[in-house]
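Hi W., the guanosine-5'-monophosphate complex you wanted:
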Amino acid sequence: MSQCLFCQISRGEIPAKIVKQTDQAVAFHDLNPQAPVHILVVPTTHMNSIADTRSPEGSDALLATVNLAVDIARDLGLDAAGYRLVTNVGENGGQSVLHLHLHLLGGRRLGWPPG
Ligand code: 5GP
Ligand code: ZN
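Structure:
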């Protein structure tokens, strides 16, 4: 997906504030943060959303993406107070970028239910 925004960020073609990366996933700061910590964690391989991760390759990439998010939360000391990992799917879910991404949100008490 050469024109996909998050594929381009993964390849380093569009700048982003990278937090941490592995062969399978990359994490960077959200451009429009909704909490003191708001990091996006994405697989380096393109998939539209979590609805597209049922293949062995997709499952592997999803797990690598979740693991990277959890590692970063621990690195940032969010474990004790807690944090939220969320992924939006489709229009009703509020997904605006069609490349699977986890939002890692923390650093304040988050409201529930979401709007
Ligand atoms: P979604 O609404 O699809 O769940 O989340 C997309 C997220 O991507 C939003 O939180 C938005 O602020 C973020 N975003 C959109 N464009 C860019 C960009 O060019 N760079 C970065 N770092 N984040 C972006
Ligand atoms: Zn993509």
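The helical segments are 5-10, 56-75, 90-93.

W.
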